[in-house]
Every structure is written in structure tokens, then in C-alpha cells.
Write a structure and sequence with these properties.
- The complex is a heterodimer.
- Chain A is of the alpha+beta class.
- In chain A, strands 2-1-5-3-4 form a 5-stranded mixed sheet.
- The longest helix of chain A has 11 residues.
- Chain B is globular.
- Chain B is about 40% helix and about 35% strand.
- By secondary structure, chain B is α+β, with helices and mostly antiparallel strands.
- The relative contact order of chain B is 0.22.
- In chain B, a hairpin with a 2-residue loop joins strand 7 and strand 8.
- The chains are: A alpha+beta, B alpha+beta.
Chain lengths: ~80, ~150
Amino acid sequence: MRVLFFGRLADVAGKRERQAPALETIAALRAWIDAEDAVLGEALRGKGVRIALNKSIVHDENASLSEGDEIAFMPPLSGG
Amino acid sequence: MIRVQSEPLDSAQSLAAFQARAHNAGALASFTGLVRGGGVSKLVLEHYPGFTESEIARIEGEARKRFDLIDTLIIHRFGALAPGDAIVLVAALSTHRRAALEAVDFLMDYLKTEAPFWKREERADGSHWIEPRADDRIARSAWEESSES
């Protein structure tokens, strides 16, 4: 599955995109990221960070994931 | 119509084309947002292709539900911009002026807080991500309260 990082989160991750192994939930994905890069894991828990699963906002961290999913971590938005 | 583009935004030309499609409208209101100077050498906007467009479409749908509109136009830039460049153009056509003016204000308040863009400013002392402003969130919340009353 593809994991995308936007804004300042991409700076923390050092890249905009990362491949993750097949994981069952967003909570499991977080645990995997924590083990790979604790600083990034902490940044992803920052205030106002939202998660999109296949380009739809998700609030439930136990939402189940499938192979080929795209998960995006987005810091607070600043459009206009 | 919604467009998210890296190409320069010519608001006069885009508005003229939009106005040409207005058949029964009595009012065209618009807003053009510009990149502010004041020490900024460059403003870089990042977006999430696909998601950014669908979120703007959702915001536009809200405006159409709320105001009596004939058509709307939203053009938003991404990529590198210089001070003075147009970053966003929002326009609304309606039979009457108030709906058009209010729709533009509403669309801007929602774009500011809900459209998936991330801005980075380049200044002499380095590069900084811009966090959303509290007064933008307050302006958006005011619309939510007014719909409840």
C-alpha cells in the first residue's frame, strides 16, 4: 500500500511517498511507521492531522485496509 | 466549473469567459486572491491531485445548496507563485446581487479552511509552512452558526 505525506509531514518523512507492507488497519499502519521512524510517527499524531483513505477522509483508525490502498496523512490545510 | 492548475491565472480573461456563459443572470460577483509580498520571495502550494478537486467540488455543492446560483467558477493555482500572482479566483452568477456576493464570501471561507492545499513561504531567512489562521476558522464557523439559526 502507498502512504502519502503532505506539507510539513513530507519534510519530516524525508519523502512524499512510502510503500508499506500489507497491513490490516490504520492503527497497524501507525504501529509500523512508529517502528520505522518514531519521529515521523509522533508528527503524524500532531494536532489537526487528518487521514484520507483512497481520497476520502477517515476518522476510524480501525477501518480495514486492503492491498493497493492509498493512505494520506495531511497536516492542517491552508488553501485560498 | 472547477480548475486546479499550475499555469498562471488570468482572472480578467477567465471572468470574461464566465460572464459570456451567463444568460439569465443579473449579477456576477468575484474575488481574486493574490500572493502577498512583504518579504516573501516565493509561495509554493502543494495539493493532493484528485482529492483536492473532489473536496472543492463538495464545497461548491454546499454553496449551490445554500444560495440561489446559476453557475460558479473556482480556479486555484498550485506550484510556485510570486508576489502579486493570482492564487485563486472565485466567481458566482445569480439572478440577484446578494446571493452572488454571499456565495463568493462563503466559498472563500470554506476554501481557506477545507480545500486540500499546503502553502510554503520562502523568505530571506528560509522556508516556512503556513498554518491555517484562527480568524479563517472563525469566519467559516460563522456560516455554520448562521445555517442553524
